[in-house]
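User: Design a sequence. Structure:
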């Protein structure tokens, strides 16, 4: 699991900030909600050459205050903060 996710527990309220670079212009997004699940799941990538020849990602499932379910794929640029 990423270092961003080592302290995450189901039921905690967290804020996840992620950054994506588009044409050398960083774009940041933030989502806040209650953790429903935190686990490693495999992707459909066949080229990863790891367990089951799949790429394993840290995935965080949150429920926002509006009831929306949000899945976050955590990477080295993800920042997860426990809030409230």
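Assistant: Done.
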């Amino acid at each position: 699991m990423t270092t961003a996710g080592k302290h995450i527990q189901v039921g905690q309220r967290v804020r996840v900030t992620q950054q994506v670079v588009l044409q050398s212009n960083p774009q940041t997004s933030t989502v806040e909600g209650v953790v429903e699940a935190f686990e490693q799941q495999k992707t459909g990538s066949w080229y990863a050459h790891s367990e089951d020849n799949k790429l394993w990602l840290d995935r965080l499932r949150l429920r926002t205050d509006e009831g929306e379910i949000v899945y976050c794929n955590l990477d080295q640029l993800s920042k997860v903060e426990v809030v409230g």
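The domain at 3-82 is CATH 2.30.30 (SH3 type barrels.). The mean pLDDT is 85.
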